[in-house]
Amino acid sequence: MNAEQPMEAHLGGGDALGAGWVSGDVYGWLLMLEKVVDGSSNMVVVTDAQRRIRWVNATYTRVTGWTLEEAMGRRPRELLHGPQTDAEELSRLTQRLNQRDSVGSVELVNYKKSGEPYIVSLSIEPLYDSRGDLQAYLSIQTDVTERRRLEREALELGQRLKVAQRLARLGRIECDPQHGQPAWSGEVFRILGLEPDGQPRGFEHLLAHAHEDDQVAVRRALAAGDASGQEVEVEFGVTGVHGGRRWVRCRGRQTPGFCGSMMAWTVQDVTIYHTRLDERRRLNEVLNRQVAERTRKLEASNQALAEFSYALSHDLRAPLRHLSSFATLLQDELAESGPCPDSVRLYADKINQAAGKMQRLIEGLLSFARFGREGLSLAPMDMGALVGELVAELRGGTAGREVRWQVQASMPTVLCDPILLREVWANLLDNALKYSGHREVSVVEIACEPHEDGWLFSVRDNGIGFDTAYADKLFGMFQRLHRDTRFGGEGIGLALVRRIVQSHGGRIWADARVNEGATFFVYLPSEPPLREPVPEVDAVSPPSVM
Q1: 69 closest CA partner among 10, 21, 15
Q2: Neighbours of 537 (CB within 10 A)
Q3: Predicted confidence band at 444 (pLDDT cuts at 50, 70, 90)?
Q4: Rounded distance between C-alpha atoms, residue 237 and residue 227, angstroms
Q5: Cβ distance 415 to 528 under 8 Å?
Q6: Neighbours of 414 (CB within 10 A)
Q7: Structure pTM?
Q8: 197-206, 244-253, 467-476 — which is least confidently predicted?
Q9: Torsional sign, CA 476, 482, 485, 488
Q10: Which one, of 70, 75, 69, 51, lies nearest residue 14 by Cα?
Q11: What is the per-residue DSSP string for 86-148?
Q12: CA dist., res. 87 & res. 328, Å (int)
């Protein structure tokens, strides 16, 4: 026998009390109930006056797993209650049943036959016969586990959404489902420094805190959105209750519902964004003023450099030419006038040598200044061909010396200013020959290898080298590291070389040991900068006596 068998099979003669456990009118009512609840989605349980189960429908068996035969004669609490069942709620339920009160929509945690908990909403109605005697209890139960799970998830989702919106400074203006009117979320109140008051508040209430000009622009955007049916996005400043100015970005769309066809809005606090924009704008203004000031100083410096170059080329070179000429005339006069003190001839030679050195210094300064005013003329240049040409020229000036050239067979073609790069190679190779001139055999090695999106060239010699502790002076104006008079020079060549290399976006450095030679490294990028970078300012010190 199971729960789908007719109720009369369970209310009839097989029972110890026979059909007499309920009166005839209640018995007839129960038979009618069987027809009503057949196939119901709710669980139906009939118990006697002692609250022992007499009948359950098929839904009860499907939900709980207990068949009618298993449940017959047992109290519901023996089958359904467990660890999570609320004892206090169960006690109140029992008390009300003892008082023969109806029970409506009470929720309990019950347990299936498998031990799985579920949430049930139950209503219990006592049944009386025509004489008013309690005959049975009718329990209608609904499994609300899934409904409560969905409600709990929706609540948790809502809480997480509120937290996320608070962290993102994102508020809402939408229809309040409880009152059917537009309402602000807490974040909108926070933006304006207001306390939530439960009053209906829509977008117009927020717009009232904006400047009049902003209100006009926003309403114009709203009108355009209404006409197109598209989402509206506006950004405007608002003034809070304490006078603080903040910025909000609002996005809205028509959402038909029980509030009417209202516009639902998101309201985001973008004050930090606007603050950063203002800071950047102020910083740009400061930078522009600094650039203008530096440009003015640079123009003044260029003007001073032009005047200095003019003075070098005209005002200083002319007296030097006169000085050199008169020194030469004096030497000729002394030679024709007969014997004279050797010291006089020595002094005349000193004057002529000093004038020549000063002339060379002026020429070097003019070359340095001239490069600062001229830009780069870039063109592909075969470094192998350029080095080969210079080596051939230098061989002609080393008669009587044994020089061993070791030049890498293959060198790349580099985008550069050929005239200026020729000056770089000429200086480096000339220095290698000059400072290895005391060796029986001068060795000059020239090599190249790929390096950092460019090329690394090196010129190595077996000369006298230098102390790397003073390497920072190598590329300064008028700086020399050797006192030996065998090695001439005015200390301008390497300064010019560094400036040329830097103008190509490259670097130059050197490594050496005293009496063990030196190696100069030049890095050139594959693509020089489009504009010449501002070169480092070289401190001009007096010519060295070294």
Answers
A1: 10
A2: 7
A3: very high
A4: 25
A5: yes
A6: 24
A7: 0.41
A8: 467-476
A9: negative
A10: 69
A11: -HHHHHHHHHHHHTT--EEEEEEEEE-TTS-EEEEEEEEEEEE-TTS-EEEEEEEEEE-HHHH
A12: 127
Residue 330 pLDDT > 90: no
Angstrom distances, CA of residue 429 to CA of 23, 166, 485, 546? 128, 70, 20, 21
236 and 248 in contact (C-beta within 8 Å)?
yes
Distance (Å, whole) CA 264 – CA 382:
70
Q: What are the tens digits of pLDDT across the range 22-69?
A: 565 555 555 656 655 666 788 888 888 888 998 888 888 999 999 989
Q: At what angle do helices 342-373 and 271-310 cross, to 10 degrees?
A: 150
Residues 6+ apart with CB under 8 A from 460: 432, 444, 445, 446, 447, 517, 518, 519, 520
Instruction: Fill in the amino acid letter for 339.
Output: P
pLDDT of 257 above 90: no
| pLDDT for res 84 | 85
Q: Which residue has the tokens 């347990």?
A: 111
Q: Whole-angstrom Cα distance, residue 308 to residue 215? A: 63
Mean pLDDT of 321-348: 74
Q: For residue 93, which of 124, 66, 62 has the smallest C-alpha distance?
A: 124
Give Dmax over CA atoms of the chain in angstroms. 171
pLDDT for residue 258 is more than 90:
no
Cα gap 275→131, rounded to integer Å? 83
Helices (H), 50-132: 58-64, 68-71, 76-80, 87-98
**Two tokens, residue 369:** 């200044």
Find the radius of gyration of the CA atoms of the chain.
52
Helix (H) or strand (E) holding 249: strand 245-257
> What six digits make up the tokens of 73?
């004669």
Residue 542 pLDDT > 50, yes or no? Answer: no
CB 137 within 8 A of CB 124: yes
